[in-house]
Structure formats: structure tokens, C-alpha cells
Amino acid sequence: MKKPSDTAELTFEDLIGLGGQSARKSYYPELLSKVEELEDERNRYKWLFENALHGIFQMDLTGRIGKVNRALTRICGYPSQQAMTEGLNFASDLLFSEQEFRLMTARLIADGQLFLYETRLRKADGQHVEVSMNILLRNRGTQTAIVAFVADITERKRVQQRMHSLNEELEQRVEERTRELVEVNDRLWQEIRVREQAEKAAQLAQEEAEEANRSKDKYLAAASHDLLQPMNAARLLIAALQERDLPDAEAGLVDRVHVALDGAEQLLTDLLDISKLDQNAVRPELQSFPVGRLLDALRSEFEPVAEAAGLGFKVHHRNLWITSDPRLLTRILRNFLSNAFRYTDTGGVLLGIRRQGSNLLLQVWDTGSGIPADKQDSIFQEFCRLTHHPTRKAGVGLGLAIVDRIAHMLEHPLGLKSVLGSGSCFEVSVPLASDVSYNLNGMAPSAVVEPDAIAGHRVLVLDNDPEILASMEALLSGWGVEIELAQTLEQALAGCQRQCSDLVLADYHLECTHTGLELRAMLDAHGLSDIPMVMLTADRSSDTRKAFRDAGVQVLNKPLKPGKLRALMTHLLAG
């Protein structure tokens, strides 16, 4: 026990108040409790250090490794902590090169800590493991230690590398695909340019074709007039010769010339008609009219044909009205009848009607040789000829093609029934008229008056072609008609004024741009509007027909058929 005189030499117990026995007895339980708490805390930190998921190691500023935990030995592949600490003296043995250690230490001293510092640790087998470390600088009195917390990021690095590889592969594939798409796009643009060039070429070709068609139409219009003029003159001269008393040999030659002219005229007319139909130059003029007027006109036209062929010809009709274009519908039925008489040797032909709901079937029956079943679908095509007839010349194969185009334009369905060896029936379906109108323009007169009724009448003929004038004079003089000829509008007007004519037959196309319709206006202006006029023309366009209708003149198409001309003249002069 210290003496009171030794107060200068105080112990640690004296300083904290535990110098006396009573004091020690008083504070000992509390101190013991604090010591136990500190021991527990120490054990807890030790347990955490040993069982932490992340690796932990401690080293000094020289790089000497002090402590490591089990997680770090597992990461680095050592069997135990002791084996790891005995095998490693310095950090450079574990993970750092000397240069990396100096740089890391400098940053750590400057900042006090390093977070997410990525590097590689050397494993026990010499391999490397990728790690991420949080490094702290720990000061304890005069000693400074470095504490590092280590997370194994090898798998993450592997995934990142895989992702990087996948990204590079994807980028490569995208680049390749992009290059392919660029190539495809370039090819598409090339195809588009080629297609555009082809379309431009096609459009140019179409424009050229349309221009060629327009030129063809103009040429056909001009050529038809020029071709039909001499044919018209020849027909008129042949008709004049046929009405004269000629020896049998000469009369036979005249008849053969007449047949040849008929064939040439039919071919030329068909060619002109099918050209106009293909160019949509024909416009239907629908109207309501009695079907009997049309059938009576066809009966008058084909009775002489049936008589010459030694065939029977019957026409059955009822008092019904239909809606159609009478001129175009007549063209269809005329073709049916012409074929029926051409291909029938014995028996006869029937033109009849049959009501079918709201439509009327106009039918042409014959007792001819019939049409084979394998040809019934093709006979409405161009240049498809019916079976050759031994006694009559077959057509060129355009008639039914024209009929088919007209029927489509009028929306009148066609029908055909035929039995080989027994005959055929051609039919066209026409709508019945819903209302009855009495506009009968374009209908041929139904009644024919005796030809002698025109004898002694004065007729003025206007045509700029002297050959036509000579032919008309030869024909009409044979009918007992008084004729006055004129080549110009002025001559025609002067002739009508000098001695009033009963009828004027005028050519439509005259010299330059003059037309026969101008004579109609001139006559009306000079008070001669009561003189009837017949326009003779090869122009079959819709515009000219409308102009004739508006002017109130009758029309006959060239080349003229003398029978039709005489019938129309008789009708006008007898009226």
C-alpha cells in the first residue's frame, strides 16, 4: 500500500477514481459490464469479418498484407486464411503491380477512399479473377491501415463480355442487314427507274398509237369518201344498165359486176364500221319506237333477196314498242338475215319476236346447214367465217364481229341456237319501252309506192364529181325523172330559183370545206324551205347524223343502193 507521502506518483487506478479499495469495489461491476460489452462488440465484428459475403483484407501503406477473411480465400482459391497469409507477403503478390499500388495509394491518401475500383486478383492456381473493391484508409493513432472490401465480378464481366460480343454481333448483323437493305433498296430504285422509263415509253407509245388512230380515223374518213365515190358511180351505172334491155350475155356480165361491187362495198363498209366501233366513234341514239316499223322495213328489203334465192321469208310481229337505236339495231338484224339467206339452200327464213319478261327477243330462224358446236363461240370474232357454202360466196368474217360490238355498246345480249344440219337461230334481246314516244328518226319508210310515181318530177342533183353526176343522170333518166345537174352551191341555188325543183339530192362533202347542208340553209333563206332534200354521204359519224337531223334532211349512205334511193324518192315525191 502506498503511503500518503507518495501522492506524487499516481497510478492509473488513482486517475480514474479506483485508487482506493472502496472505490474499486464501488465501480468494479460497472467496469466489468463495459468490458464484457466491448468483448461482445469485438466478437461481433470478428464474426462479421469472418462470415462476410464479400472478401476483406487489411494491409499497411507499404503493401504488407495483415488479415484476410474466408470469403477472400474462397475468391482467390486458397484452402484457408492461414495458407493465404503465409503465401502472400505483399499486395503485389496478390493483385497489384508496384506501379498500380503506388497510384492507388496516392489516390487513397488524397481522397480517403476508393469506390468500385475494378482490377484483377491472382488466384492460388495462377489464374485471375475479376473483382470490384471499395478501399478505405483507416487511421488508428499513429498507424494507418488500408482496408479493402472485395466483390467477385467475374460472372458479371463474363456477362458484360457476352453482351458486348452479342452487341458487336448484332451490330454486325444490323450492318449486314442494312447493307442488304441498301442493296435491295438500290435494286428497287433501279427497278422503279426502269419501270418509270417503261411507263414513259408505254405512255409515249400509247400517245403515238392514239395519234396514229386519230390519223387513221382521219385517213379512213377521207379514204372512205374517195373510195366510195368511184364505187358509188359504178353502182349507179350498173343499176342504169340493169334496167335497160340488154342481150343475155351482156346482162349476165352486168350482173356479175353488180355482185362484185356488192362484195367490195360490203368489205369496205365493214372495215369502216369496225374501225369506228373500236375507236368508240359510234354513239347510240336511243329512242322508243314500234318494232313493227323496223320489221316491215326489213321485210321490204329482203323479200327480193328471198325471191331471188327461191326461199320462203316470213315476218311475224306484234304491236309492241322497244327502246334502242333503230339504225344500229337494224344493222344487227340485217346481218342476221344476210347470213341466213347466204347459208340456206332450201326451206326459208323467219324473222319473228318473242316476249321475255321486260325484254323482247328479235329472232332470225333459218333452215340452213347449221353451225358446229365447236365454232359457235368463235363466230363472233373477227375474220371467223362460217362454213363455206357451195353455191354462195361466204363473207370475210367481219359481219358478226360488228354485230357483237354493236350489241355490247347497246347492252343488248345476243343469243345463238344451232343444230348441225337443221338450221340456226340468232337472237338479240331488246328492252321493251317503258314509255311510248313517237320519235321515229332513222326509221326507213314502211310503205313503198309504185316506181312510176316519180316519173316526170324535177330533181336537182348537187355533186362536185362529174362522174357521179353522169352516173346519177344515167340512172334517174331511166326512171323518167327530169334532172338538173349542179357542181357548186351557187349553181344549185340558181337552178332551184330558175325552175322550182321537187327534190334535191345533194352530196355532203363538196369542194374545199363546203357541204351540202349549206344548200339547205341557202334554200331556206330564199323562201324555198318546202323543197325536200336527201343528203348523199359516206360520212357515218354521229356528229354529221345529228347535223342532218337538226336540218331536217333525209340521209342515204354511199355507195347508194338504187332500190333504196328509188324507194325514198317515191316516198318523198308521193307525199
Account of the protein in words:
With 575 residues, the protein is α/β, with parallel strands linked by helices. Among the domains are: 52-152, PAS domain (Beta-Lactamase); 282-431, Heat Shock Protein 90; 451-574, Rossmann fold (3-Layer(aba) Sandwich), CATH 3.40.50.2300. Helix content is 50%, strand content 19%. The chain contains 16 helices and 17 strands. The protein has helices at residues 12-15, 21-51, 70-76, 81-87, 91-94, 98-111, 154-242, 248-278, 291-309, 326-342, 399-410, 466-478, 489-498, 517-525, 542-551, 562-574; strands at residues 55-60, 65-68, 113-122, 128-140, 143-152, 287-290, 312-315, 321-324, 348-356, 359-366, 414-419, 423-431, 458-462, 482-486, 503-507, 533-537, 554-557. The strands form four sheets. The chain has a five-stranded antiparallel beta sheet, sandwiched between helices. The chain has a five-stranded mixed beta sheet with strand order 7-9-10-12-11. Helix 7 packs antiparallel against helix 8 and helix 13 runs parallel beside helix 14 (517-525).
Key structural traits:
alpha/beta; 17 strands; Beta-Lactamase; five-stranded mixed beta sheet; Rossmann fold; 16 helices; five-stranded antiparallel beta sheet; Heat Shock Protein 90; 575 residues
The class by helix and strand makeup works out as: alpha/beta
In the CATH hierarchy, the architecture of the domain at 282-431 is: 2-Layer Sandwich
Under CATH, the homologous superfamily of the domain at 282-431 reads Histidine kinase-like ATPase, C-terminal domain
Shape label: rod-shaped
User: Could you name the CATH topology of the domain at 282-431?
Assistant: Heat Shock Protein 90
First-to-last CA distance: 179 Å
pLDDT averaged residue by residue: 80
Number of E strands: 17
Proportion of residues in helical segments = 40-55%
CATH class of the domain at 282-431: Alpha Beta
**Range of strand content:** 15-25%
Q: What low-confidence regions span 5 or more consecutive residues with pLDDT below 50?
A: 388-393, 437-451
* Overall radius of gyration: 60 Å
In the sheet with the most strands, the strands line up as 2-1-5-4-3
| Largest sheet report | 5 strands, antiparallel
